Structure prediction request, 164 residues.
Amino acid sequence: MTRRAGQAADDGVDELVTTILTASRVLVGVSARSLAEVEDTVTLSQFRTLVVLRGHGQTRLNRLAERLGVGPSTALRAVDRLIAAGLVVRRENEVDRREVVIGLTPHGKDLVDTVTARRRAAITDIVSAMPPRQSRTLVDALDAFSQAADEPVAAADPATLLGW
Prediction:
């Protein structure tokens, strides 16, 4: 049986997808463990809301909903729960008093930074166990993957953190 050129390419894509799915299991595990100590405080989706606010700063509800990829009513329910937990505040916009903005409290900022530091340490341990010659290749591949998905870079500085 002979292979067509397209079939060989499909095999390469399948292998790549399988590899990424395997790596994603590792990353989901790291994420779950990093959230384990705060799971009585926030859910995964609530944590994502906190991360978006940490990365983008205070924002209007509709813009927050867009960034989360949810409807405004879903974002509002999450915000209300986070306000009740003391992690988020709703206040009048200092520039336009007709507008209400949502932002993190110091406790919300600390929670995001603590979980992110825990996650960064776990990923550092994994990456440190990799053969050094493969590190640059992995960086290039993951950068290309993130760019193809239109995902902004998660910086080391928590003030500009966009990942979760």
Remarks:
- Confidence is low (pLDDT under 50) at residues 158-164.
- The beta strands are 88-92, 100-104.
- The two ends are 46 Å apart (CA to CA).
